[in-house]
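BUG: 3D viewer hangs when loading the predicted structure for this chain

Environment: internal workstation, default settings.
Expected: structure renders.
Actual: progress bar stalls at 90%.

Input used:
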Amino acid sequence: MTTALILHEVPLPEDCDLDGSRLHTVFKTKEKRLRANSATLCPHVWKFVPQAHIVKFNARVYALDMFHVWAQMAIHVSLRSLIVLGDSIINVMSRRRQCDTRQVYCELVRFVQSVTGFAGRPSCIRALSLIMPGSSSPKESEQRIALLAHGIPRPKLNYVVRNIMFASGAAMTLDLAWPEYKVAVEYDGDQHRTDKMQWRRDREKRGKLVGRGWLIFTATASSLADDDARAEFAFHVGRALTLRGADFVFRLKALPIEALAPLPRNVDWTALESKVE
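C-alpha coordinates produced before the viewer hung:
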Protein backbone atom coordinates (compact mmCIF):
# COMPACT_ATOMS: atom_id res chain seq x y z
CA MET A 1 0.00 0.00 0.00
CA THR A 2 2.52 2.65 1.09
CA THR A 3 4.96 1.00 -1.32
CA ALA A 4 2.44 1.37 -4.14
CA LEU A 5 1.86 5.04 -3.29
CA ILE A 6 5.61 5.66 -3.46
CA LEU A 7 5.77 3.93 -6.85
CA HIS A 8 2.83 6.00 -8.09
CA GLU A 9 4.52 9.16 -6.72
CA VAL A 10 1.58 10.04 -4.51
CA PRO A 11 2.36 11.89 -1.23
CA LEU A 12 2.06 9.59 1.78
CA PRO A 13 -0.37 10.51 4.60
CA GLU A 14 1.49 11.54 7.74
CA ASP A 15 -0.80 9.61 10.10
CA CYS A 16 -0.60 6.24 8.33
CA ASP A 17 -0.18 3.40 10.84
CA LEU A 18 1.77 1.19 8.40
CA ASP A 19 5.52 0.71 8.77
CA GLY A 20 7.03 2.75 5.94
CA SER A 21 10.41 1.03 6.27
CA ARG A 22 9.03 -2.34 5.10
CA LEU A 23 8.04 -3.53 1.64
CA HIS A 24 4.27 -3.96 1.52
CA THR A 25 3.00 -6.68 -0.81
CA VAL A 26 -0.54 -7.70 -1.73
CA PHE A 27 -2.00 -11.15 -2.45
CA LYS A 28 -5.46 -12.43 -3.24
CA THR A 29 -5.52 -15.07 -0.47
CA LYS A 30 -3.56 -15.99 2.64
CA GLU A 31 -2.40 -19.19 0.97
CA LYS A 32 -0.71 -17.24 -1.82
CA ARG A 33 1.18 -14.87 0.44
CA LEU A 34 4.91 -14.71 -0.13
CA ARG A 35 6.87 -15.94 2.89
CA ALA A 36 9.95 -13.87 3.63
CA ASN A 37 11.86 -12.09 6.35
CA SER A 38 9.16 -10.33 8.38
CA ALA A 39 11.58 -7.52 9.20
CA THR A 40 11.67 -6.39 5.58
CA LEU A 41 8.39 -7.63 4.08
CA CYS A 42 4.79 -7.01 5.13
CA PRO A 43 2.25 -9.09 3.16
CA HIS A 44 -1.42 -8.07 2.89
CA VAL A 45 -4.47 -9.91 1.63
CA TRP A 46 -6.81 -8.09 -0.79
CA LYS A 47 -9.43 -10.34 -2.32
CA PHE A 48 -10.13 -7.80 -5.07
CA VAL A 49 -6.73 -8.24 -6.72
CA PRO A 50 -8.29 -9.85 -9.84
CA GLN A 51 -10.47 -6.75 -10.31
CA ALA A 52 -7.56 -4.33 -10.10
CA HIS A 53 -5.79 -2.79 -13.06
CA ILE A 54 -2.26 -3.92 -12.31
CA VAL A 55 0.34 -1.28 -13.16
CA LYS A 56 3.70 -2.47 -14.48
CA PHE A 57 6.68 -0.31 -13.47
CA ASN A 58 9.39 -2.60 -14.82
CA ALA A 59 9.98 -6.28 -15.62
CA ARG A 60 9.80 -7.26 -11.93
CA VAL A 61 7.79 -4.57 -10.21
CA TYR A 62 3.98 -4.38 -10.36
CA ALA A 63 1.47 -2.51 -8.22
CA LEU A 64 -2.28 -2.25 -7.81
CA ASP A 65 -3.94 0.72 -9.48
CA MET A 66 -4.39 3.78 -7.29
CA PHE A 67 -8.12 3.30 -6.66
CA HIS A 68 -7.51 -0.09 -5.04
CA VAL A 69 -4.58 1.33 -3.06
CA TRP A 70 -6.81 4.16 -1.80
CA ALA A 71 -9.46 1.65 -0.71
CA GLN A 72 -6.86 -0.42 1.14
CA MET A 73 -5.51 2.64 2.93
CA ALA A 74 -8.93 3.51 4.35
CA ILE A 75 -8.37 1.49 7.54
CA HIS A 76 -4.83 2.78 8.02
CA VAL A 77 -5.36 6.56 7.97
CA SER A 78 -7.76 9.09 9.45
CA LEU A 79 -10.82 10.21 7.51
CA ARG A 80 -9.16 13.59 6.95
CA SER A 81 -6.08 11.96 5.45
CA LEU A 82 -8.22 9.66 3.30
CA ILE A 83 -9.87 12.74 1.78
CA VAL A 84 -6.51 14.41 1.18
CA LEU A 85 -5.15 11.18 -0.29
CA GLY A 86 -8.15 10.94 -2.62
CA ASP A 87 -7.48 14.50 -3.83
CA SER A 88 -3.83 13.61 -4.49
CA ILE A 89 -4.64 10.41 -6.37
CA ILE A 90 -7.12 12.22 -8.61
CA ASN A 91 -4.55 14.92 -9.28
CA VAL A 92 -1.80 12.43 -10.21
CA MET A 93 -4.08 10.29 -12.37
CA SER A 94 -5.49 13.25 -14.30
CA ARG A 95 -1.98 14.57 -15.03
CA ARG A 96 -0.74 11.22 -16.27
CA ARG A 97 -3.78 10.59 -18.41
CA GLN A 98 -4.10 14.26 -19.42
CA CYS A 99 -7.79 14.27 -18.63
CA ASP A 100 -10.14 16.35 -16.53
CA THR A 101 -9.92 15.77 -12.76
CA ARG A 102 -13.73 15.59 -12.62
CA GLN A 103 -13.65 12.55 -14.89
CA VAL A 104 -11.26 10.76 -12.55
CA TYR A 105 -13.40 11.66 -9.54
CA CYS A 106 -16.49 10.17 -11.18
CA GLU A 107 -14.52 7.01 -11.92
CA LEU A 108 -13.54 6.85 -8.24
CA VAL A 109 -17.20 7.16 -7.22
CA ARG A 110 -18.15 4.31 -9.54
CA PHE A 111 -15.27 2.23 -8.19
CA VAL A 112 -16.48 2.55 -4.58
CA GLN A 113 -20.01 1.80 -5.73
CA SER A 114 -18.97 -1.41 -7.50
CA VAL A 115 -16.41 -2.82 -5.05
CA THR A 116 -18.16 -3.97 -1.88
CA GLY A 117 -17.30 -5.98 1.19
CA PHE A 118 -14.04 -4.39 2.36
CA ALA A 119 -13.50 -2.97 5.83
CA GLY A 120 -12.71 0.59 4.78
CA ARG A 121 -15.65 1.07 2.41
CA PRO A 122 -17.75 3.19 4.86
CA SER A 123 -14.81 5.57 5.25
CA CYS A 124 -14.39 5.72 1.47
CA ILE A 125 -18.06 6.61 1.04
CA ARG A 126 -17.77 9.38 3.62
CA ALA A 127 -14.57 10.70 2.04
CA LEU A 128 -16.17 10.97 -1.40
CA SER A 129 -18.49 13.72 -0.17
CA LEU A 130 -15.54 15.98 0.71
CA ILE A 131 -13.05 15.04 -2.01
CA MET A 132 -12.82 17.83 -4.57
CA PRO A 133 -11.13 17.28 -7.92
CA GLY A 134 -8.66 20.01 -8.77
CA SER A 135 -6.62 20.27 -5.56
CA SER A 136 -2.95 20.68 -6.45
CA SER A 137 -1.31 19.62 -3.19
CA PRO A 138 -2.06 17.92 0.14
CA LYS A 139 -1.63 21.21 2.01
CA GLU A 140 -4.18 22.91 -0.23
CA SER A 141 -6.58 20.07 0.55
CA GLU A 142 -5.95 20.41 4.28
CA GLN A 143 -6.55 24.15 4.12
CA ARG A 144 -9.84 23.65 2.25
CA ILE A 145 -11.06 21.10 4.80
CA ALA A 146 -10.09 23.41 7.67
CA LEU A 147 -12.15 26.23 6.15
CA LEU A 148 -15.14 23.97 5.55
CA ALA A 149 -14.99 22.82 9.18
CA HIS A 150 -15.55 26.43 10.25
CA GLY A 151 -18.56 26.85 7.96
CA ILE A 152 -16.85 28.58 5.03
CA PRO A 153 -18.69 27.77 1.76
CA ARG A 154 -17.05 25.41 -0.72
CA PRO A 155 -14.56 27.24 -2.93
CA LYS A 156 -13.77 26.69 -6.59
CA LEU A 157 -10.39 24.99 -7.02
CA ASN A 158 -7.71 26.17 -9.45
CA TYR A 159 -10.06 28.89 -10.59
CA VAL A 160 -8.99 30.56 -13.84
CA VAL A 161 -9.47 34.32 -13.48
CA ARG A 162 -11.07 35.84 -16.55
CA ASN A 163 -9.49 38.73 -18.45
CA ILE A 164 -6.37 38.86 -16.27
CA MET A 165 -3.13 37.29 -17.50
CA PHE A 166 0.57 37.26 -16.74
CA ALA A 167 2.83 39.43 -18.87
CA SER A 168 3.75 36.20 -20.67
CA GLY A 169 0.12 35.73 -21.70
CA ALA A 170 -0.40 32.73 -19.39
CA ALA A 171 -3.69 32.47 -17.51
CA MET A 172 -3.84 33.25 -13.80
CA THR A 173 -5.32 30.63 -11.49
CA LEU A 174 -6.20 30.71 -7.80
CA ASP A 175 -5.89 27.73 -5.45
CA LEU A 176 -9.20 28.35 -3.63
CA ALA A 177 -11.59 31.02 -4.88
CA TRP A 178 -15.03 32.44 -4.29
CA PRO A 179 -15.18 34.40 -7.57
CA GLU A 180 -18.58 35.97 -7.01
CA TYR A 181 -17.10 37.79 -4.00
CA LYS A 182 -13.57 38.20 -5.40
CA VAL A 183 -12.02 36.45 -2.40
CA ALA A 184 -9.31 33.80 -2.74
CA VAL A 185 -6.80 31.76 -0.76
CA GLU A 186 -3.37 30.88 -2.12
CA TYR A 187 -1.26 28.26 -0.36
CA ASP A 188 2.45 29.10 -0.34
CA GLY A 189 4.83 26.22 0.28
CA ASP A 190 8.56 26.65 0.83
CA GLN A 191 9.23 26.89 -2.92
CA HIS A 192 7.26 30.12 -3.05
CA ARG A 193 9.97 31.70 -0.86
CA THR A 194 13.07 29.95 -2.19
CA ASP A 195 12.35 29.99 -5.94
CA LYS A 196 12.93 33.51 -7.31
CA MET A 197 10.88 32.92 -10.43
CA GLN A 198 7.95 31.59 -8.38
CA TRP A 199 8.23 34.55 -6.00
CA ARG A 200 8.13 37.01 -8.88
CA ARG A 201 5.12 35.27 -10.44
CA ASP A 202 3.32 35.42 -7.10
CA ARG A 203 4.00 39.16 -6.80
CA GLU A 204 2.85 39.83 -10.35
CA LYS A 205 -0.31 37.76 -9.94
CA ARG A 206 -1.36 39.13 -6.59
CA GLY A 207 -0.53 42.70 -7.60
CA LYS A 208 -2.77 42.49 -10.66
CA LEU A 209 -5.58 40.73 -8.84
CA VAL A 210 -5.61 43.17 -5.92
CA GLY A 211 -5.68 45.98 -8.46
CA ARG A 212 -8.87 44.46 -9.88
CA GLY A 213 -10.57 44.28 -6.50
CA TRP A 214 -9.64 40.77 -5.34
CA LEU A 215 -8.82 39.98 -1.71
CA ILE A 216 -6.05 37.38 -1.58
CA PHE A 217 -5.28 35.50 1.65
CA THR A 218 -1.95 33.69 1.79
CA ALA A 219 -1.94 30.40 3.68
CA THR A 220 1.25 28.69 4.84
CA ALA A 221 2.16 25.75 7.04
CA SER A 222 1.69 28.00 10.07
CA SER A 223 -1.96 28.54 9.07
CA LEU A 224 -2.50 24.81 9.64
CA ALA A 225 -0.26 24.44 12.68
CA ASP A 226 -3.01 23.88 15.26
CA ASP A 227 -6.69 24.47 16.01
CA ASP A 228 -6.14 28.13 16.96
CA ALA A 229 -4.18 28.89 13.78
CA ARG A 230 -6.81 27.23 11.59
CA ALA A 231 -9.63 29.07 13.37
CA GLU A 232 -7.89 32.44 13.09
CA PHE A 233 -7.23 32.02 9.37
CA ALA A 234 -10.79 30.83 8.74
CA PHE A 235 -12.16 33.84 10.64
CA HIS A 236 -10.33 36.32 8.38
CA VAL A 237 -11.51 34.55 5.23
CA GLY A 238 -15.05 34.27 6.58
CA ARG A 239 -15.16 37.95 7.56
CA ALA A 240 -14.04 38.99 4.07
CA LEU A 241 -16.68 36.82 2.45
CA THR A 242 -19.40 38.16 4.76
CA LEU A 243 -18.45 41.78 4.10
CA ARG A 244 -18.73 41.09 0.40
CA GLY A 245 -22.19 39.62 0.64
CA ALA A 246 -21.77 35.90 1.33
CA ASP A 247 -24.47 34.40 3.55
CA PHE A 248 -23.37 31.50 5.74
CA VAL A 249 -23.01 30.54 9.39
CA PHE A 250 -19.44 30.79 10.62
CA ARG A 251 -18.41 28.33 13.35
CA LEU A 252 -15.93 29.58 15.94
CA LYS A 253 -15.30 25.97 16.86
CA ALA A 254 -14.54 23.67 13.94
CA LEU A 255 -16.81 20.72 13.32
CA PRO A 256 -15.12 17.32 13.53
CA ILE A 257 -14.38 15.89 10.10
CA GLU A 258 -16.78 13.03 10.86
CA ALA A 259 -19.62 15.54 11.24
CA LEU A 260 -18.75 17.15 7.92
CA ALA A 261 -18.90 13.78 6.18
CA PRO A 262 -21.53 11.62 7.89
CA LEU A 263 -22.21 8.14 6.54
CA PRO A 264 -25.59 8.18 4.75
CA ARG A 265 -28.02 5.30 5.15
CA ASN A 266 -28.67 5.24 1.43
CA VAL A 267 -25.87 6.47 -0.80
CA ASP A 268 -26.98 8.64 -3.72
CA TRP A 269 -24.19 7.74 -6.16
CA THR A 270 -25.62 9.93 -8.90
CA ALA A 271 -25.59 12.95 -6.60
CA LEU A 272 -21.97 12.28 -5.68
CA GLU A 273 -20.97 12.29 -9.34
CA SER A 274 -23.04 15.35 -10.21
CA LYS A 275 -21.61 17.49 -7.40
CA VAL A 276 -18.52 18.16 -9.51
CA GLU A 277 -20.35 19.11 -12.69
